[in-house]
Amino acid sequence: MASLYTKTKLYLEANSKTWDDTKVLLENNGSGDFIASWTYDGLEKPTDEQIASYETAGNTAETNAGIDSTRRSQYGSWESQMEMIYKDQKNGTSTFKDHCDKVRSDNPKG
After folding, report:
1. What pTM was computed for the model?
2. CA nearest 41: which of 17, 5, 21, 14?
3. Domain ranges of the chain
4. Upper half-sphere CA count for residue 70 (Cβ side, 13 Å)
5. What is the pLDDT of residues 47-56, one digit of tens each?
6. How far, in Å, CA of 110 to CA of 68, rounded?
7. pLDDT per residue over 55-70, tens digit each?
8. How far apart are CA 18 and CA 21, in angstroms?
9. 110: pLDDT strictly greater than 80
10. Measured CA angle at 67 (ends 78, 59), to 5 deg
């Protein structure tokens, strides 16, 4: 289940707004997350139904964020990437491209 933060962020983006901690406050009173404060000019606070409509997109966004994080760790440091590129250019190999292709195929996005 997508978090309220993710669904609210998607709602904002769909309405040409960006997340701003000074304009929206999410809280949890023990019964669940809710929007405690909303002060975006020209955009009404979303209804529960509007937020719920972003469940599928929210799940996809959160899954892809996890995949991105895994990919970043598997790509290695920028130094090791530069070393692979340097060696590829020197030796006429494709180690770096092969490495990146493997990381992407091992961690496909949904």
Report:
1. 0.78
2. 17
3. 1-75, 76-110
4. 14
5. 999 999 999 9
6. 11
7. 999 999 999 999 999 9
8. 10
9. no
10. 145
